Amino acid sequence: MSVSSEDFRTALSRFASGVTVVTTKDGNGKLHGITVSAFCSVSLDPPLVLICIERSAGSHYAFGESGSFNVNVLASDQANVSEHFATVYDDKFLDTEHVIGENGIPYLPGSIVTLECKLKKPLDGGDHSIFLGEVQNAIVRDGDPLVYYHGNYRSLAD
Ligand SMILES: Cc1cc2nc3c(=O)[nH]c(=O)nc-3n(C[C@H](O)[C@H](O)[C@H](O)COP(=O)(O)O)c2cc1C
Asked: Which of 7, 15, 59, 95 is the most buried (most CB within 10 A)?
């Protein structure tokens, strides 16, 4: 027995998640950012998180080149930011407020959390790569999270 793609997608859409924008830069210093809901905590000691990035994503190569990435957990008023970073643009940072962090990777100051991560290991995840990151720095800001459920953006108040 094997599940169809459609049934699998429908089942996964019932899992409510937060939304992140994961940022990095490539070997030429070009900045990259991608909307990612496949993020989770892995370990407290050492502090590890993972993100899953589709192999066909234009930014996929950049993660291996820089060896660092930032996870920005989006605030409830950032659905437009999520859509922006889920769209293919040559320079997604041109019209987006961002700051270059101490690790040289951009972060989004409007997000409620930024985790600065060092890429520990890329792992095989089928049509995605699993990037395991060791958290070097965690910045926490006030605000409520953006929620994604059943193909729609929600907030905790909904
Ligand atoms: C709410 C939401 C969650 C997403 N989660 C992921 C994800 O976890 N992993 C992924 O590879 N793409 C995810 N995507 C799709 C990417 O953001 C999208 O393919 C993006 O255009 C890739 O950018 P790039 O091709 O410029 O690298 C998500 C999109 C949305 C709207």
From this structure: 59
